[in-house]
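Researcher: Good morning. I'm working through a list of sequences from a screen, and I'd like to move beyond sequence-only analysis. For each chain I'm collecting a predicted structure so we can compare shapes side by side. This is the next one on the list. No need for commentary yet; just the structure.
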Amino acid sequence: MQLNPARSSFFALLFAAMACAGCSAKKPIAPNVPAFRLASFNDDSLLLTPLISEDHSIGAPITLTLPGRLHPSVNSHCSAESGPFCIEQAKNDPSSINISLPAPEKWLDDLEGRTEPESHEEVEALDAFLLDLDRLEQAGCFTDTSLSIRDFVLQSIPMRPQDSYYNAYGYRLGRGVDLKPGIRLKIERAYFRAAMAGEEDRSAKTFLGLSTVLFDVELDGDHNTRLRQVGDIKYSPESLASTVTEGSRDLELANLPSEPRYRLYFYTDLVAEKHTRSAAVIGATSLGQVDEVDRKLRANREQDCKTVEVPGAVTCFAFFGFVTVSSQISVELNGKTTFIEWGTRVDDVLPKNSGARILHSLSLQRRYGPGKYYDVRFKPGDSNILSLWLVGGDRLTWLKSRPKPASH
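Model: Good morning. Structure tokens for this chain:
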């Protein structure tokens, strides 16, 4: 979407709309306000962001303009380019920046049918571009520190409904999850007694019970990320509390210092018996540091994150033993805030056998830019919306079935 002079104030108007939406976020958004939209393409679909106009061709590259975001004292150094991705000073406004993204059609072709998208050229170019954006932010290139340009670009990339976690958390297969507000970590640790002769280690016969503890991801006053324990650690059965000690180490997660970046690194979906490290939480000042630790841990799955050598200070918390660390996300379902499991789709939260009636009554709002809400528009009855992965802060409503009248 190349912006012409007649539409040069579009982004400013959009952010004004964001501010208005924040005053009464739960009221329906007027039809003339920009919105997400689900666009069909071939046998697939893409979720397009509010800045991509309704008449934008799916085969045309995208250009987004952010007015007044470039710091005047360093703007000569505040540009980056990697493949089809580019950020540079706007030609008609020295304080503004233009962000170029690939055509949705080309981007979808690169993602479609790929189980390992990180091995392909455009996705590798995006990884390099995001690192460049992080370095530019560290150098003080952008004036509004409350709006991360890196996160905004990630949000703005057209993705398939089932790839929403990449927009929200930078997550894709084999990579970690960028920890942001709205995520809750659930730590479950299993306990076993020593196996006797003829018994198998860590089996149903030697199983003693579980401990569970929760941590919410929050921002402090400086917009750094921290982890806050929610409630006490719980044991099942309760008698375990007086006989085991391993679970108390998990509570130290709340003592980690606040960091600009935190990421949950999943060790693997299936932990082999010989492995002891199940997951790790990595914190650092820059995205580049976190990425480097992530890359080295994936290359050497036996390595402790505390021994990974990268430039600068890195915070690391590794989980050892028979433990799982899972993510939950906070969403609003028919007006009620609740935590749902990672990987939950729209279809998963709807009543079973709900049929087309509920599909036609669905309404979804999602945050964009500096945290304000926008409608997600889709054609009535378009079942592609059911495969959309819900992300933190989503607001989903649908028409509840009316009770059948009593028979006489």
